[in-house]
Amino acid sequence: MEKESGEVSSKLSSQAPVKSLPTEPVAIQRMHLCLTCKKAIGEGEPFCSYCGTKQEISHAEVQAQLDPHTMKVAVMMLARITEAKDHPEYSAIDELTTTIGEVALGKEKPHDAHELSFPDQLRLLTLVFEYVRDKVGYKGEVFGEHVRWPWETVKTGGDCDCKVVLLATMLASLAFRRMHLLVLPPGKYLDTKGGGERTMQGHVMLEVELSERDRLIRANLDPSCADCDVDEIPETMRPFLQNFYRVPIIP
After folding, report:
1. How many other C-beta atoms are found inside a 10 Å radius of the C-beta of residue 119?
2. pLDDT of residue 212
3. CA 94/CA 196 separation, integer angstroms
4. How far is CA 91 from CA 85, 88, 153, 239, in A?
5. CB burial class (10 A; 0-12, 13-18, 19+) of residue 179?
6. How far is CA 236 from the centre of its chain?
7. What are phi and psi of 24, to 5 degrees?
8. How far is Cα 242 from Cα 231, in angstroms, rounded to an integer?
9. Cα–Cα distance for residue pair 35/105, rounded to 1 Å
10. Domains of the chain, start order
11. How far is the C-alpha of 113 from the C-alpha of 251, rounded, in Å?
């Protein structure tokens, strides 16, 4: 665990500095690949948040539009995340994250994760991610068919959208506030690696922003990928990263 966290920390810390952290919600964006490092970033970002390269921005589409089905799924996911704390069952999530927080940092639960040092943010994020990845079962279902409440997913397992809802809710409980859903709508897409078109059933990942002094550091999390660590994208998703949408989670 310590060795892996050190490797991830080194990789994440090499990302580009920014002048300040964003304070306003970000509109839904299409993703596109950076011209230099080929990592997926928001279509409207003037500079790559990973390598700092200036991007060519198209102003043809002010705000990206999801198809009705995917929008419905995204809205349901956001509601499950932001409304969870208002339910009595939420106490199970709060107790779980308190336990994980104590393992990671000791008895003091953070009031704001971004007040922690970067290594502590990363350790806390990693332990929560590993819990959802390893301890919560995966159910292969039709994209968005059942978007479960977080405490339901802990008990019964769930598919990619359910596990992302659980992960985001747990991180929000630990005061990680800057998060986005990364959503791939079902459909046919060009396979940039193998060529030709492939039919994709839809997928969701989570983007979480950590901070280190004046640096904003993004980590992509896929709790449905059994072999993925923090900030690793599944091989099956990499050829389609430019087709994902970035949806802000507003607590």
Report:
1. 13
2. 84
3. 46
4. 8, 6, 14, 39
5. buried
6. 17
7. -100, 145
8. 17
9. 39
10. 2-14+66-249 (3.10.620)
11. 14
Tell which wins on pLDDT, 28 or 61: 28
Measured from the Cβ of residue 221, the count of other Cβ atoms closer than 10 Å reads: 29
> How is the beta sheet containing 40-42 ordered, strand by strand?
40-42, 29-33, 245-249, 179-184, 203-212, 215-221
Q: Average pLDDT of the chain?
A: 85
pLDDT of res. 64: 64
Tell me the per-residue pLDDT of 221-243, one tens digit each, with 9 for 90 and over. 999 999 999 999 999 999 999 89
All residues at 6 or more sequence positions from 98 whose CB lies less than 8 Å from its CB, including other chains: 109
Q: 38: exposed, middle or buried (C-beta count within 10 Å: 0-12, 13-18, 19+)?
A: middle
- pLDDT value at position 6? 53
Spatial CA neighbour of 248 closest among 33, 19, 8, 44: 44
As a whole number of angstroms, the distance between CA 100 and CA 98 comes to: 5
- Over residues 74-85, the pLDDT tens digits come to 999 999 999 999
What is d(CA 67, CA 89) in angstroms, rounded to the nearest whole number? Answer: 32
pLDDT digits (tens, 9 = 90+) for 45-99: 888 877 888 888 665 444 567 899 999 999 999 999 999 999 999 999 999 998 9
Q: Taking residues 7-16, what's their average pLDDT?
A: 53
Alpha carbon 171 to its chain's center: 10
CB hemisphere CA count around 22 (13 angstroms): 16
